[in-house]
Amino acid sequence: MNLLQFMLQNHVEVFELTLEHLWLVAISTGLAVLLGIPLGILITRRPWLYKPILGSANIIQTIPSLALFGFLLPAPWIGARADRLAILALMLYALLPLIRNTYAGIKGVDPAVVEAGRGMGLTDWQLLFQVELPLALGVIIAGVRVATVISVGLATIAAAIGAGGLGEYIFRGLAMVNNSVILAGAIPAALMALTADVGLGWLERKLSPH
Amino acid sequence: MVTPNSRAAVEFRNVSYGLNGGSEVLRDLNLEIRHGETLVLLGRSGSGKTTTLKLINRLLTATEGEIRVDGRPLRDWDVIRLRRMIGYVIQEVGLFPHYTVERNIGLVPKIEGWPRDRIRQRVKELLILVGLEAQIASRYPRELSGGQRQRVGVARALAVDPPFLLMDEPFGALDPLTRVELQREFLALQKRLQKTVVFVTHDLREALLLGSRIALLEAGRLVAVHTKQEFMASKDPLVVAYKQAFDTGLGEHS
User: Fold this and answer.
1) Which of A2, A169, B59, B224 has a C-alpha 20 to 30 A away from that of A92?
2) How far is it, in rounded angstroms, from Cα A210 to Cα A108?
3) Is the pTM of this model over 0.80?
4) Residues of A within an 8 Å Cβ radius of B
5) What ipTM describes this predicted complex?
């Protein structure tokens, strides 16, 4: 059976798994944005937190994904359902690019612009929201883009703990030694990653000053 | 806004500024700046003139001594209120690149809660005051020339009509013709507005042209505060060295 036949025959399942995959990625990336951007801002304000926070995000990034799923398994509430577990793990992986890019974006704002803002009597919040974040937005979106693309790929592994998504086909195909089944998972995942990359890349250019 | 009284506008008493454990950038400064005067801080790079300026609007905090603004010690001021009554102009201008000229100039008035019409009116007024066309208001900083940018920088600093103006080599990055133009306009403007201005420069000609008094700094110490006449007549070796450097400079050009 070739790939096209397989996908046509199972189009309902393909669609469901794609939605599941999308959901895992969207929720985890969304949570990572909500957590990572404030953390990135925080370390521009409290320099002594830079090393512990960025260091932790870095260490998480070095843990192999299967091992991370394993480590999180005993966690209360989280460990009770595979999709919660997968979302937490994916969120943790997405943190590093978000924290790093938020920090780099804000630190990359022309010091003269920041000095002028301070000198004219902007409060720290006004400086952040009127000047620093708008000017850092392009770099921050670039972080969201990297995080999303990584997340789409990593989410396929979530199938190993029963969280569903397109990884189902990849693992099933591996077990069946059937390339068509593997591709039925891999191709939609790749398309999803490409779409996210192109879409967020467009947004990044649009929101970058100049 | 200028309150004519005998008190100094800004007063430095035994002020020092040093980096943590490091050498002192400014040592034991005693200086009075009077209401409505243009005091020029003159000196070479690293002499402490920019440091002195930033101590006034608390972008830096003195490690020793006391600074008073309008007779009140700096630590008693709310730093945001203090900065809003002190216009700040720097060489790099630092316009907000994502805002139009109008929003750049109107930002502090907006934060201060001015109604929109009043802000628009004020922006127009300020643009004319600094010699720009009113239709420039909708442009972005990147669409302006260096001279136009610095004019907008001055307009922005004047937005809420602050009684003080701090200027850190504002014309230093401009071509000589534009610089002369802006210097002349600054003089005319200052004659009208009578702000208390502290002006940092390393250019003796600029200092003599613009300053009511000149404070010469060298290696973090105040050498002397002179009027133009006193400065030209001074026999202080450091003042003489400065004058000679510019005499030779002038000789080469003419």
Assistant:
1) A169
2) 14
3) yes
4) 110, 112-123, 126, 130-131, 134-135, 209-210
5) 0.89
